[in-house]
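user: can you give me the structure for this one chain? tokens are fine.
assistant: on it. calling the predictor now.
[tool input]
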Amino acid sequence: MATPSPVLPRGTRIRVSTTGTLEQILRGPAALDDGTHNLLGALKTSMGTLGARNLKEMQRVEVAIAPSLLTEGKVYQKAQQLGMGK
């Protein structure tokens, strides 16, 4: 028996579908701007932002997440109907 979770209620089913081919999801080009395509492009961008030359360096980077970063820019996305604000 699974441990109950308020975030993941038991018995809830959701419909999932594909958003593109495996090639599109891994390498791009991104057909959607919601972050579900181009995994390698996102990884390269993240590494560049952190100044990491390889994955080992990226693993050693200390990252601080502030609560305001989770909502920053959402007002503008909704107003412009971009990204997750569509």
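assistant: here you go. The chain has four helices and no strands. Residues 22-85 form one domain.
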